[in-house]
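Practice set, problem 2.
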Amino acid sequence: MKTTKQFILLLAVLIGFSVTAQQPDPPGQVKGNAKAKNEAYLFAHMTHNDYGRLYYSVSLDGLHWENLNSGKRVFEDYKGHPDICKGPDGKYYIAGNTGDDAKTINIWVSDDLITWKKHSDYTPDLKSTPDYAHALQRIGAPKLYFDKDSDQFIMTWHTPHLEGTKEDGERYWASQRTLYVLSKDLKTFKGTPNRLFDWDMGTIDVFIRKVGDSYYAIIKDETYPTLYWTTGKTIRIGKSKSLLGPYSLPQQSISPNFREAPMLIPSPDDKIWYMYYEQYPGVSYGLSIADNLNGPWYQASGYTFFSDWDKYSFPEKVRHGCMVTISKNEYDGLVKKFGIVKK
């Protein structure tokens, strides 16, 4: 009898632990009847099976994402790693290219994120970049940001200067450097491409954001991780008082190793930052959270196959792109046009 009571007590403790031992919900959500400052979000992305083409998913909380258009392409003409930027004219711009070895960056424009038309093509003279005379003809993942202070766009991408070898395939990736060009209208571009950072480190997937009086460069550290370079293949942040730098050496890793394609959005209440990144090759997405871009950051739980532990979720087989805040009216327009895939 005593043994039975002990077993029942132990079972109750274990059940209680299984119910309560879970991560709390991420901060940043709107409580009660309060109105969200960031009403909705668009994730423009590719998929594992259709790399480099344009798909949409949407979210109302920045955490749980649902496919549009029955998981089919939303714009057939686009190719690239999608990155969307809202300009001072209220229009949206998306940059891409047909492949890393393509010589031209293609830019499209839209009033509503539904209908896109060609805006311009830009062919950078990579060999003209100061202190980068041996640049290879590669243009990786062009990204756009409109800087209100200087009233101009900055477009960034990564370009290597060394080919890989059978003995050292990683030297190609370690030789990636982030280049940029400025433009008032994304039709004419100022001067030749320049290197964004004065430190000598492989960087890809770089984008810029200004928060408060500081500019932040969100990067992927493309050095291979070792005991002596533990931050390799992780997401990190550099900081500057000026759009063009100089940027501080990046802080400690925000993500685990072998993560790339970061995306940054503010929470619905606009008090928290959500940083997403892909575990490659197309395995899953991670999420780190902070109340300011200087950190500290912590990692939320997802892709655990236990719903109580999954604090964020994605459609299957989505791959990298960009996330932007949109209005509820824009969200409704996208859902009306394309239809939403409810889980």
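Problem 2, part (b): a different protein.
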Amino acid sequence: MPRHVTYSVQAPSAVVMVRPHYFTVNTETAIDNLFQSSPDTTDDLSRAAYDEITRAADVLRSHGVNVHLFDDTGTETPDSVFPNNWFSTHAGGHVAIYPMKAVSRRRERRSDVIEMLKTRYRVQEVIDYSGLEPDGLFLEGTGAMVLDHIDRVAYAARSDRTDPIALERFSTHFNFEPMVFDARDGNGVAVYHTNVLMCIATDFAMIGLEMMTDAARRREVVLRLERSGRGVIALTNDQIASFSGNALELQGNAGRILALSTTAFASLSRDQRNTIEESAELVALDIPTIERAGGSVRCTLAGIHLTPR
């Protein structure tokens, strides 16, 4: 099975993960996140989620990914396991901090994570967009945007969590071209985060094309990805519901890997798996409890695109 061992700016070799001691399905975000499901007791969910993140971090480390694992011991941040929404990092030493729609999610922002980045990596600037929250302008990080670090495009599905003004500011600061589209599920409900239906890797992209409501825009997105040299893997609505679009390419010690959940892996066809494995090893992480909160593997990983000190 061929593997690319050359470095790709699309695939970070290090991530931040947050291990929860208190985990439950966030009722504040359930209004527009239809991927969530009703909770059992909080204690049962917390124990399971803690164990799932611990095991996932161990698996990624076994493949050579540098995992910076933080613990969240508070009780006011039920979604802290999804750090990719409140910050992102970028080549050249840049860090962005994002405005979050839910008040409970704003409490997830942690100075110790930013200080770790400054200590372990070369950080030139931190741009904090959280001051946009009082004006109702939200941009929930790499949940709201799926970033093509090679072609410099920020793909974004319109939603209350992806404000066009905030997106334009980010794109100007970080040198991305915004490419916005409308996306709805099979019931006509707008998709709340772009990264549930789209994953961009170095050599391929996985997209829920059926969800993109404008045919012309859909063709533009596909053409743009193909022009960047990527094969486009179309995902069905059922596969999206199984979190197959919520994956992240990472750099391992033996080549690139695609981290995704066991739920997502099971939903992929043999042909789709074969296409992915031409350039990246599929690494399935078992996180069924965490998926009940409406996010999957990609949401649990904040990629580090910074140069180590």
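Answer key, part (b): Residues 32-39 have pLDDT under 50 and may be disordered. The chain has ten helices and 15 strands.
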